[in-house]
């Protein structure tokens, strides 16, 4: 069902008759990433495990409330704060893993499983970052008929019709394709797996910097920690 998008708190924007970008995939991913603290061994988690999940859940609820009240600026600030908390928690967990590894605080199998969980969390957290920041974020992308410019050059931006999901809306003069959360999740997965953007070139400097950080975390959790744990087995 189409809706008429109008600007929330902020500068006036042109209204467009289109379906707004769904936020629920990112919300579920954020909550799932925060829940990792309950799965990791207690010796690897700095502080009580409920702090991160409780704080992230509260921030997500407040961000949803701000969006429903059309408080765009507060919605974005709360979203950035949520991802900031998750990123710091991820770095803290990785630091705890590196601290516990040479001291043999946990069995090798636990270490290997923890490294795998942190690798997955790394993918999810940075996918949320890319989704939130690219082309001004979902609040900005909702006011565009099609995605033609951003920090990442998706193939659909150069090859209209290459994706089966690309369709032409008769009420709009242009193709209505735009990236969703799954596109950014795929990008983050490739970055952590191949240490490169593969089929999606990176254009912005901030995106290049974030991908470097993500690759470093992935390299640490997989190559260093996991390899050391396997050697101990």
Question: What is the fold's blueprint, element by element?
Answer:
Layout lengths: L2 E3 L10 E3 L5 H11 L15 H19 L3 H32 L4 H26 L4 H4 L13 H4 L22 H14 L10 H28 L1
Antiparallel strand pairs: 1-2
Helix pairs in contact: 1-2, 1-4, 2-3, 3-4, 3-8, 4-7, 4-8, 7-8
Describe the fold and architecture.
The chain has helices at 24-34, 50-68, 72-103, 108-133, 138-141, 155-158, 181-194, 205-232, and strands at 3-5, 16-18. It has 233 residues and is mainly alpha-helical. A two-stranded antiparallel sheet has the order 1-2. The longest helix has 32 residues, at 72-103. The protein starts with a strand and ends with a helix. The relative contact order is 0.14. The model is unreliable at 1-12 (pLDDT under 50).
Strand order of the largest sheet: 1-2
> Could you tell me how far the N terminus lies from the C terminus, measured between alpha carbons in angstroms?
55 Å
Structural class: mainly alpha
What is the β-strand count?
2
General form: globular
* C-alpha Rg (nearest Å): 20 Å
Report the average pLDDT across residues.
81
Oligomer: single chain
Low-pLDDT regions: 1-12
By DSSP (H or I, 4+ residues per run), the number of helices equals 8
Estimate the strand proportion: under 5%
Helical amount among residues, as a percent range?
A: 55-70%
Report the order of strands and helices. EEHHHHHHHH
Specify the biggest β-sheet. Answer: 2 strands, antiparallel
């Amino acid at each position: 069902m189409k809706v008429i998008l109008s600007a929330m708190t902020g500068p006036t924007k042109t209204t467009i008759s289109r379906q707004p970008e769904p936020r629920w995939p990112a919300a579920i991913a954020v909550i799932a990433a925060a829940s990792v603290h309950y799965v990791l061994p207690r010796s690897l988690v700095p502080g009580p495990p409920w702090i991160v999940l409780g704080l992230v859940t509260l921030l997500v609820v407040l961000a949803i409330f701000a969006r429903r009240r059309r408080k765009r600026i507060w919605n974005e600030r709360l979203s950035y704060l949520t991802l900031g908390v998750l990123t710091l928690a991820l770095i803290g967990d990785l630091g705890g893993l590196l601290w516990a590894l040479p001291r043999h605080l946990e069995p090798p199998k636990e270490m290997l499983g923890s490294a795998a969980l942190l690798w997955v969390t790394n993918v999810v957290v940075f996918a949320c970052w890319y989704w939130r920041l690219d082309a001004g974020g979902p609040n900005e992308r909702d006011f565009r008929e099609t995605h033609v410019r951003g920090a990442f050059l998706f193939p659909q931006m150069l090859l209209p019709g290459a994706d089966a999901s690309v369709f032409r809306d008769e009420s709009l003069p242009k193709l209505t394709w735009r990236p969703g959360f799954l596109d950014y999740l795929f990008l983050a997965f490739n970055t952590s797996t191949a240490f490169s953007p593969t089929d999606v070139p990176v254009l912005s400097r901030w995106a290049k910097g974030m991908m470097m950080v993500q690759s470093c975390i992935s390299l640490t959790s997989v190559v260093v920690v996991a390899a050391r744990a396997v050697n101990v087995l």
